[in-house]
Automatic annotation (TrEMBL):
Protein name: Glutamate dehydrogenase
Keywords: Oxidoreductase
Pfam annotation, one family: ELFV_dehydrog_N
Stretches assigned to the Glutamate/phenylalanine/leucine/valine/L-tryptophan dehydrogenase C-terminal domain: 186-417
């Protein structure tokens, strides 16, 4: 199983980051081994009846990295590239993220290898319900709490809640987060990740002595996270000059109207063809001059090939694992880019998921203002902690963030001991 994970480039990247951090922390070999490898790796087959009457089998995964600090928390994604190694890497990053943010969770991640864009709502519902049924022995509000991710949304979470609650015989709202508000979801959850990205990006601009109203930003990825990051940045006064998604890329030095582009995407299914900006090669967009670059799509998009060409002052990692270790080395040597690493930058989603879980346990709802205010406070605290630690130890920001998160997990592992 280790060999299968290590064959995946995303897991290799996560493992390389961990090994570097473990060396810095001087973790003992036994604690290092226990922290690195996931507790559970689940693979299930999901047969469903397609609308044309044919039966098709999909493969689904769930990785629970550790439960030492509490139930695992992490998203469920529907995407054609999903495989076990990628899911394991994302679960590992989520583990360090929750520890860094002080959340009482371990890291989890799930996925189904499929293309939701080519599936009907009925097919997606059947697949979601079958996947949830297969996972029933391994999930629960105190064991594993899922949330939306790429290709999934609040409706998918509602279907999962229904399967689990029907099995339990009563409503169990804490089984998932990111669900509809009228099913005891949380206000502010949809915007949380993008809001947090924008909030920290503006704090980084302030650290760099760049006024928000004079700043520009480029967003790679215009899904839920990219949209809300762009919208919140524009509300801070930052001009959005470039945006891309799977259909194409746009560039407009005078600024892009985010809401108008969103309306275009709703009508046409992507940013391609938007009249308010010029088309540009997606790879070229990443290296255009800007104050804030936000990779908000897939992993491994900042590479050794383009890291030296970046013209941003702040690199705000809204996606998980967007920067390869080779690119990290180049960026560290350059020394002119303020990196907000992924496990800090995109932690707004899991933080508000924690708020939702707490509200479900209490059976008490908070207002959107309360949620976002609490989120800003926690994000600011974690940001200041990472930057202060990096300055104190003279560390790159990613290594500082990982060290704080991994040490928290390692300490708990050491304290709890090894069950014989």
């Amino acid at each position: 199983m280790k060999e299968q994970l290590l064959e995946n480039p995303v897991f290799q990247m996560a493992a390389e980051q961990f090994d570097r951090t473990a060396d810095f922390l001087e973790l003992s070999e036994d604690v290092r081994e226990r922290c690195k490898w996931p507790k559970r790796l689940l693979t299930v087959s999901i047969p469903i009846k397609r609308d044309n009457g044919e039966t098709e089998v999909f493969f689904g995964y769930r990785v629970q990295h550790h439960l030492s600090r509490g139930p695992v928390k992490g998203g469920l994604r529907f995407h054609p590239s999903v495989e076990l190694g990628e899911v394991a890497a994302l679960a590992m990053w989520m583990n360090w993220k929750c520890a860094l943010m002080g959340l009482p969770f371990g890291g989890g991640k799930g996925g189904v290898t499929c293309d939701p864009r080519h599936m009907s709502e009925a097919e997606l519902e059947n697949m979601t319900r079958r996947y949830t049924a297969e996972m029933l022995p391994f999930i629960g509000p105190e064991t594993d709490v899922m949330a939306p991710d790429m290709g999934t949304n609040d409706q998918v979470m509602a279907w999962m809640l229904d399967v689990y609650s029907s099995h339990a015989g009563h409503l169990v709202p804490g089984i998932v987060t990111g669900k509809p508000v009228n099913l005891q979801g949380s206000e502010g959850r949809t915007a949380a990740t993008g809001h947090g990205v924008a909030f920290l990006a503006t704090r980084a601009l302030t650290k760099c002595k760049i006024r928000h109203e004079k700043a520009t930003a480029i967003i790679q990825g215009f899904g839920n996270v990219g949209y809300h990051a762009a919208l919140t940045l524009s509300r801070f006064g930052v001009k959005i000059t470039g945006i891309s998604d799977v259909t194409g890329a746009l560039y407009q030095p005078e600024g892009i109207d985010v809401k108008a582009l969103s309306a275009h995407v709703q009508e046409h299914g992507g940013v391609k063809g938007f009249a308010g900006a010029a088309a540009i090669d997606p790879n070229e967009l990443l290296v255009q001059a800007c104050d804030v670059l936000v990779p908000a799509a897939l992993e491994r998009v900042i590479t050794a090939e383009n890291a030296g060409q970046l013209q941003c002052r702040v690199l705000a990692e809204a996606a998980n694992g967007p920067t390869t270790p080779e690119a990290d080395e180049i960026i560290e040597k350059r020394g002119d880019i303020f990196l907000i690493p992924d496990i800090l930058c995109n932690a707004g989603g899991v933080t508000v998921s924690y708020f939702e879980w707490v509200q479900n346990l209490q059976r008490f709802q908070w207002s959107e203002q309360e949620v976002l205010s609490k989120l800003d406070t926690m994000m600011a605290k974690a940001f200041d902690r990472v930057i202060s630690f990096a300055q104190w130890k003279n560390l790159p920001h990613r290594l500082a963030a990982l060290a704080l998160g991994i040490k928290e997990v390692a300490d708990v592992k050491q304290q709890r001991g090894l069950f014989p």
